[in-house]
Structure formats: C-alpha cells, structure tokens
Amino acid sequence: MKMNGRRESGNVEDRRRLSGGAATGLGLGGVLIVGLITLLMGGDLGDVIQNVSSSGGIGTETAQTREFTAEEEALAKFSRQILASTEDVWTAYFKAAKIGAYRSPTLVLYTDATATGCGTGQAAMGPFYCSSDQKLYIDLSFFSSMKKKLGADGDFAYAYVIAHEVGHHVQNLLGTLGQAHQQMARMSKADANRVSVRIELQADFYAGVWAHYEKEMFSSIERGDLEEAINCASVIGDDYLQKKSQGYAVEESFTHGTAAQRMRWLKKGMDTGDISQGDTFSLRDSQL
User: Fold this and answer.
1) What whole-number distance in Å separates Cα of residue 104 and Cα of residue 95?
2) In whole angstroms, what is the distance from residue 18 CA to residue 134 CA?
3) pLDDT confidence tier of residue 233, bands split at 50, 70 and 90
C-alpha cells in the first residue's frame, strides 16, 4: 500500500509500555493454551476472557521501561494510518447513505495484556473489538505471528485485520451487533456459534467495503495488495486453523467461518462497496 504522507488517527491509546503480565504462574504459554482450547471448543471472545481469567491469567498493569524497534514503530504508525483511513471512508459512507454521523472507535495498542470494557484482554486472543467501550485492541506482535505461523504477510493483510475489527464497530453503530448478541444469549452453544459466524463474515464484508473506497478515494492499493488480504482471510478460516492445530475440523464449533466463506465475503465487499449487500443473517448456512 502507498501510505506515504497519509494522516495518522488521533483516536489511539498507546499502552505498549503497560503490561498486564500473568498471575500465579500461568505464563504466556498457559494463556495461549487456554485461549486456543476455548476457541477450538467453539468459544467466543467472552469465553476466552472468562477462562483465561479463571485460570489465573490476569495481572495488574504496570509501567515497563522498554524501547521499541524500528519495525514495531513502523507497524504502530501504519495502524494509526489505517484507522484514519477507516475514519475517512466510513464518515463519507455514512453521510452519503444518510445513515447518520459516524463515530470512530478508539484503537488501543498494548503488550501482553490490558484492561478492557469486556474484561482483561490477552495477546493470545488476537485483535478484537469490545462493544462495551467501543475500542479495538491489538498487540502488534500478532502481525509477526501471522507471518511466521500462518504465512500471511504484507501491509494490506495487516490493514484487513484492522478493517475487520472496525467492521465490528460499524455493526455496533448500526445495531446489528447488539441484536446478534442478544439472540446468542438465548441459544444453545451450537446455534450461537452459527450466529457468530454470520457476525464475523459480515465484518469481513465491511472490511471489503472499506477496501473498495480506500482504493477509490486514495488510490493507495497496489498490485498484489488484494491478494494479500484474500490470502490472509483464507488462513484464518476456522477449518484451516482447526486442521492446522488438531488435524481435523469440527463444523459445529466454527465461530468465524470457513476459509472459503471468509474470502468470499471479503471479496464481495471489495467488489460491491455496498453494505446493503452484506446481510449474512438472513441466509441459510449453505448460502454463506
């Protein structure tokens, strides 16, 4: 992506020098195991937070003295620029569509663990959005993990991750996220997982809508960028991740959608740029 000279969002909290640590001996490895097991069993973000907390994975945030590498600083700057881009795109879209005023989320950059409106967030969860405080949380080490563990690399792949979380914020502003969470609270685990898949696929679609207008408004997308995002979507599908970690996939435990579904909805958003075509909730499973 061509981002030279682009503005950086001011809606950012940099907590990278604050560390929540891990209490009573769980350690980062233990946190990772608890988080992975919870997600593979069909849990969502709230379940991960609860299980990590009950396993002793929460500490008190303390100030840390550390210097950031040039790579870390470049990723932080890029993240602020992408957030600014989502602000520009969604502000213009909401106005043109007469949806109302767009209110930007806050991006929180943190290390290891941090307090959120949804409980204590852990790096093992990956990037996530909390509707209670309207903030999205990212430990920048996630991007290195994407590259090393999943082979998903490139600035546009990283931008897609941020745009996906902003997509959840758009869902929250439109009321979709709250309605879906209310439905999930009354459902069995398997049925709630099916709703979760629809939430995540729509967020992928909204990330695609952002990419559509980012290209139109700023001409920043270069040859190969779209392929980076689509490749990223393919390797974070539930089926791909479960097969990679345990050798097989359990469909009823999916919470984010298959690789093929995530690629399809991302690409649909890129192609159409029209949020009215992103209704994932009224479709049958076979239509997703």
Assistant:
1) 14
2) 20
3) confident
C-alpha pair distances (Å), 136 with each of 30, 181, 189, 265: 24, 17, 25, 21
Cα–Cα nearest to 57, from 80, 34, 86 = 34
d(CA 208, CA 13): 25
Helix (H) or strand (E) holding 116: strand 113-116
Residue type, 84: A
Q: What average pLDDT does range 215-235 have in this prediction?
A: 85
In Å, how far from its chain's centre is CA 96? Answer: 26
Structure tokens at 194: 């099916």
Task: Report d(CA 281, CA 18) in Å as an integer.
Answer: 39
Q: pLDDT tens digit string along 73-84?
A: 999 999 999 999
User: Which pTM was predicted?
Assistant: 0.83
Q: For 183-219, how does the pLDDT look when each residue is reduced to its tens digit (9 = 90+)?
A: 999 999 999 999 999 999 999 999 999 999 999 999 9
Q: Measure the CA–CA gap between 19 and 60, rounded to whole angstroms.
A: 8
Listed in sequence order, the residues at least 6 apart from 249 whose beta carbon sits closer than 8 Å to its beta carbon are 238, 239, 242, 243
Q: At what angle do helices 176-185 and 189-218 cross, to 10 degrees?
A: 170
Per the model's pLDDT, the better-predicted residue between 23 and 229 turns out to be 229
Residue 107 DSSP SS3: strand
For 117, the 3-state DSSP assignment is strand
Q: Where are the domains of the chain?
A: 12-287
Q: Is the pLDDT of residue 33 over 50?
A: no
- Beta partners for 109? 14, 138
